[in-house]
Description:
- There is one protein chain.
- The chain is of the alpha/beta class.
- About 40% of the residues lie in helices and about 15% in strands.
- The protein has a 7-stranded mixed sheet, sandwiched between helices. It has a 4-stranded mixed sheet with strand order 5-7-9-10.
- Helix 5 packs antiparallel against helix 6 and helix 9 runs antiparallel to helix 10.
- The longest helix is centred in the N-terminal third of the chain and has 16 residues.
- The chain is globular, with a radius of gyration of 19 Å.
- Acetoacetyl-coenzyme A binds next to helix 2, strand 7 and helix 4.
Amino acid sequence: RRFMSYTHVLVTRPEPAVALITLNRPKALNALSSPLFSELNQALQVVDADDAVGAIVLTGSDKAFAAGADIKEMQDKTYANVFKNRFLEDWTLLSKIRKPIIAAVSGYALGGGCELALMCDIILASPTAKFGQPEINLGVIPGGGGSQRLAQIVGKSRTMEMVLTGRTISAQEAERWGMVSRVVGDGEGQVVKEAVEMANTIASKSQIAVQAAKEVVNAAYELNLAEGLHFERRIFYGLFATNDQKEGMAAFTEKRKPEFTHS
Ligand code: CAA
């Protein structure tokens, strides 16, 4: 069911509590143009603000999650132009979304496409997924966080290899390196199906606890250990002020399923 219409992204609700955002520039392998990103950001803000949505899945097509920033759009840009217009700065909105975002990646996730997947909270990959930072072949470097996020996730040597040679890595390699949580079964659409199921599981929990959990895990990438542990405990204490904590623990004691009210 489509509930809002955009040109470059499709937003559907495969489950009442799950929003599925599909990048939809198939002819350009979902190259991430400015109009596409602006629609993606709008769609993300709409679903983040929708109380009925508990988790989000972001996907592309079978052939391409996204083949990177739009090279044809970038080609004639000047330094002054990208500097003054803060080119790519709006990409950071995705990392400010409170609800969990699962990337379901099939086919190419290159350059900005790989970076977009890395900004999501969980990456599920189909066996056809290919990840890479090929910007070096274009005379530039990653600009959407790839060098930083990859270094945090897969370490220096692997990041240097990807960023300096532009080599594309397979789904299996990405799994071994810890970039993706799992490679899921064969077949068209299977990775999206599994991502939606995972999102639905997350959406069945207390939204407040889920969003708090996402916030504290992300803090591990920003804070040092002492600060992170302190932050986690404070947020944990705070959850005792919610009805969902009372409900979750009462349900356990009464041996029944919790009915969270997200309050
Ligand atoms: N930008 C603009 N258009 C793109 C694109 C991109 N990143 N990637 C693919 N396309 C377009 C192609 O130009 C082509 O359009 P036309 O039919 O009009 O010629 C169409 O999509 C299909 O692509 P191909 O014919 O190239 O398909 P293929 O199957 O032969 O190859 C591919 C697939 C290996 C992914 C190849 O398209 C490719 O190398 N794409 C570019 C990948 C890349 O360099 N990405 C990094 C971009 S820079 C960046 O992202 C900066 C950053 O950090 C933010």
